[in-house]
Amino acid sequence: MKILIIGASKGIGLATTTAALAAGYEVRAFARSAADMTLSDPRLEKMPGDATHQQDVEAALADVDAVIATLGVGLGDLIKPVHLFSDATRVIVAAMTEKSVKRLVCVTGFGAGDSRASIGVLQRVPFQIVFGRAYDDKTRQEDLIKQSGLDWTIARPGVLLNGPKSSHYKVLRDPASWRNGIISRASVADFLVKQIEDRTYLHAAPVLVN
Predict the structure, then answer these.
(1) Tell me: the pLDDT tens digits for 200-210?
(2) How far is Cα of residue 109 from the mean position of the Cα atoms in its chain?
(3) pLDDT per residue as tens digits for the range 123-144
(4) Burial 105-138 (b: 16+ CB within 10 A, else e)
(5) Number of domains comprising the chain
(6) What's a single GO MF annotation on this record (predicted)?
(7) Closest CA to 89 of 44, 133, 36, 150
(8) Domain residues for 21?
(9) For position 120, what pLDDT does the model report?
(10) Which of 31, 62, 119, 199 is deepest in the core (most CB within 10 A)?
(11) Higher per-residue pLDDT: 121 or 40
């Protein structure tokens, strides 16, 4: 199978690219800075492009079996309105529908969508001040995915850390169990790659924590 990873050059995207290659998949790594990636593998194709440009995304979808979307914004982007997640998702959903690619796995975060109600009382105000603009857009992103008609899974990790994959990270599907917590990017990547063929969390948006 060939997997398209959108936002592949940094953070969770880079960790997911590494994990997908280790799992034996062919990977097309799509990002504006894809050409600068130092990762090298015979099964890795680096494709520079912009996830908000329909033509770029349609070209990246050629001969692809599944898509993992791992878009992110920098800290400096948090102080102004954020539209990247929803803008790119509109393009991705339309292009996947056009190209008949059904499987979409996407990272948002704890605090997006209906998981925001599970943020602790003392955390709500600082969360909104620092991350509110980005997570408002992640919520819009989730809504677009849920309305897409695609075979989707949304992953909502807690606070991201570097470090190795944990063999004990938790996938919290029941809203009553949702909570914030830390988790490594490698653990999130492990979950994302497993969803390529596993349908356990089809049309679900679990929270991921250690």
Answers:
(1) 999 999 999 99
(2) 9
(3) 876 777 777 788 899 999 999 9
(4) bbbbbbbbbebbebbeeeeeeebeeebbbbbbbb
(5) 1
(6) riboflavin reductase (NADPH) activity
(7) 150
(8) 2-209
(9) 79
(10) 31
(11) 40
